[in-house]
Amino acid sequence: MLAILVSLALLIVLTFRKINIVVVGIAAAAVMALLSGQPVVTAVTDTYMTGAAQFVRDNFLLFFFSVLFGKVMEETGAAASIAKFLAELLGEKFAILGVIFSGAVLVYGGVTTLVVVFSLYPIALSLFKKANLPRYLLPGAIAGGCFTFACANFPGTPNLVNVIPTTYLGTNTMAAPLVGVITGIAVMLMVCVYFLWEASRARARGDCFVEDEATTQSLVKAASMVRLPSPIIAILPIVLILILLNVFKQHVVVDMLGGILLCVVLFFRNVHGVLDMFSYSAENSAIAIINTAVVGGFGSVVQASQGFQKLLDFATSLENIPPLLAFGLMTTILAGACGSGSGGLGIALSAMADKYISLGLAPEILHRVGSAASVGLDSLPHNGAVITLLTICGQSHKESYKYIFFPTVVFTLAGMFLSIALGTVLYPIS
Question: Taking the complete model, does pTM exceed 0.85, yes or no?
Answer without folding.
Answer: yes
